[in-house]
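Can you give me the bound-state structure? Components:
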Amino acid sequence: MIKPNKAFAIAALTGGLSLVSASALARDTVNVVGSSTVYPFATVVAERFGRNTDFPTPKLESTGSGGGFKLFCAGIGTQHPDITNASRRMKSSEFEMCQRNGVEAITEVKIGADGIVIANSRKADRMDLSLRQVFLALAKDVPDPQGGDKLVANPYDKWSDIDAGLPAKEIRVMGPPPTSGTRDAFVEIAMEGGCKTFGFIEAMEKKEMRSVCHNMREDGAFVEAGENDNLIVQRLAQDKDTLGIFGYSFLMENSGEIQASTINGVEPTPDTIADEQYPVARSLFFYIKNAHAGVVPGVQEYAKEFTSEGAWGDNGYLVDVGLIPNPRNVRLETAKAVRELKPMTGNEL
Amino acid sequence: MTDPGSQAELVRRSLKRRYGKERRFRLYGIAAVSVALFSLAVLFTDIVSKGYTGFIKTTVTLDVHLDGELMYLNDASDPEQMAMADFQAPIIKALQEYFPNATSRADKRELSRMTGSYASNQVRDLLKENPDWLGSTRTIEFPAHDTVSVYVKHAGDPGYSIRLTEQQQRWTDELLSKGVIDTGFNDVFFTSGDSREPSNAGILGALVGSLLTMAITLVIAFPVGVAAAVYLEEFAPGNRLTDFIEVNINNLAAVPSIIFGLLGLAVFIGLFGMPRSVPVVGGLVLALMTLPTIIISSRAAIKSVPPSIREAAQGIGASKMQVVLHHVLPLAMPGMLTGSIIGMAQALGETAPLLLIGMVAFIVEIPDGFFSSATVLPVQIFIWAGSAEQGFVELASAGIMVLLAFLITMNAFAIWLRKRLERRW
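Here's the bound-state model for the whole set.
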């Protein structure tokens, strides 16, 4: 009765420890981390790459852009990821962090663009908003409507309270939660953009300005709808007085039921997003750790698959999932940079 | 002194009230049980009614003429030619047999979206395995495209929106009536890893990942937990240090699981340089998380062994160690096992600590060892529940059913073990 128990315990312990020490470090799978916005595109490429080549399917982790850079820049070696995705450009501070940790040669790949739309049901009238109006409708604290450089709790209940030209309907907007990359981008581009149209806010110190611009209202006019953009789309189709905030790809899939508001007079279309005429647009990137190419099998090949015309071209399979492609000349140039693994200098940031 | 008659009267009068009280008390209990049962029933009905369609797959079975000319291929054993060949063309051609009028570019595009996105890969893999098939006609079963599958399974269900064009709907109806499009048991779900295409996605990768992770957790947490409990209960001197350790173990049991993830990230990945996303690290983190539970329940089990047994053993000359190993441990074993299983069940459903050590990831390959990248069942469910494609809704619910089945199997095994080891005194 006892002996086997004891033997088991000892075997289990030593077995466990020897496994730990055997920590095999060679790796044959490409590791990708980074933005949750790029994740749906990158997973499609990864799966195709795994099925069409003899390389194993790359492993993708959705860590957010900032988290991705942190992991990516931690160092050279197979315990660190090979590629990081980002829904914004690398910051120069991040580039320096990479340099400090020995991640010197990095290739930047701009994969395309993504727009964030404010949409409502086709049964209602199309809204025409400016970033300033968006900020006034959704910020927690707004400049006093009576005038003066004072902030007051958001007093607006109806769109017409902000501007007589807007419909006399209650402000009700559904959007993504703070954990979402779409929310980050919306807050940074749309809210901050609208907020900075007020001179005294722009004159504030950066930290204070951000806290004013980035705080969404919590009195029920802005509803956090969870990460599932599908749910927002379904709600919009049912309720014609609600607006929703989500990525352009969801608008495309549901254009039968919902329509996008124009912002500063520009309608979101693949063209206006690609040339950044539409104000709430951002570029998507990924970054390759050049030192890992040729060490971890498949790193460069995966990047080549991503930058092939069949994937990110005008008729590529990434367009089907909602990517807005770069103009062809940018694509050709970037694809060449990937083939040559042209490193960044740091000056372009 | 008091009048016995009025005393009895007092009791009789209060009797009705006391009976009433008791009845109400019982009713509260029944109500509580009913609420619990009702919630459970609602949960199960919801999961099963949403998820049972996840076990059904939609297939398109076509007689594909593997025409070399159409695919730009004259030797299927030449890898260079294979890389450049067009494997979608014969599939479209086979569908055109049914719809000879669909010849425009747009029509062809719609036809190619009847079968899943990886249908051409399937043709290529078949040709790669059997190069002599080139030129012959073969019957191949393809998974249907996600949108077709949603239409076949959920047309008319308000929870789903049909994304097929009207032409595609007509085609689907006709192919259904001809038996080309059919539904069957979804074996893909049990034999493959994750995919971005619902019709190709399976739970096997996550299931294997969970098994590997749980194996590590059990192998670390059970022996360490039991050893700690035995020492604390039987050997440790009753001083302040012991009290301090006790208090800390009890506190650890209430620490949010994400903290253990942070610990794992800092120690196992940061300090020891172990790779991310591997079952070893996941298992170690979950082992740390379950340790307090196992120690506490094991101590309770050891405490419940009657002192008379210890005294009797010592009385006939057994040493302290013999008492513990020969008598206390075997008697406490059922209780320890129960505690361990509770801890393991908790670990099985955990996602938060795994997020930090990289086990929340898109992984297609089935893990083949403790050091290959893996996810676990709850993570897979979480990933599917957040995916945009409609087909993943039912897969997420189907995944929950698999997770529950896993849990029930584990519990059943524990109960069986307990029954075998149980002794009466």
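A couple of observations. The first helix of chain A runs from residue 2 to 21. The mean pLDDT of chain A is 85.
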